Amino acid sequence: MSFPSAALRLHQVSKAFVAQPLLRMPWQKQPAKRTLAVDNVSLTVDPGEIFGVLGANGSGKSTLIRLVSTLLLPDAGRMEVFGLDVVRRELQVKRLINRVSVDAAFFKKLSPMENLIYAGRLYGLGSAETHRRGLEILDQLGISRRAALSPMEEMSRGMQQKVAISRALLTSPILLLLDEPTTGLDPRSKKDVQQLVEDVRQQHGATVVLTTHDMDEADRLCDRLAVLDHGQVIAMDQPARLKRIGDSLEDVFMRLTDEQEEAA
Questions:
Q1: What is the mean pLDDT of residues 30-46?
Q2: 155 within some domain
Q3: Residue 219 in 3-state DSSP?
Q4: Which of 53, 135, 137, 189: disulfide with 166, CB 3.0–4.6 Å?
Q5: Structural domain span for residue 122
């Protein structure tokens, strides 16, 4: 199966949210508040690349991931996943991608394996196949057979996030979208997840788009980085080249965002 040269291509993509006042009397003319979360973003991600999106909270990272994963519709611009228009070919795109967010939801009374089997059914996988693949992935992440059959509510935040990644890998996505996957994890769990991201690329040839505000994580994992500020891409390059601006990625990030604030 051959694919176009780009795993992901965004061209002038924008998304705004409009919030109406909760309480407004008939005689009051309080306008709705419009927030531009993603502002004219254009970028291309190559197949097999780990592409990072750096940004502070509220910079538009999560909105960008939700747009690519078909959870939101763009107000303007065009998005393609391996040449497929994300809006017009939504069902086909969904078969190629999977997403892990920082607030992944589960059936907490069920075990990791039961959650995986349920997710597998949604994607048309049989119970036997899901059970086999699920155990392989859980083993790779260091989740014991006993833990795999215990209720999710008894697991730590880090263990639950590992299950979220296991669930995403069940469908063998060729584009994996990770929205701050290690936020709130302990150092050991964070390292395990980061290692899995590298393994997914090396062993399965997957393309990974990773949002984070962890500069060390971005430096370690990503082939290229886009720095997002107030919904706009203000820099994009390899980590080593970006670090020519400052002593570290953190220093680069602070300088770039400070310049944007001064220019605003």
A1: 89
A2: yes
A3: helix
A4: 137
A5: 107-172
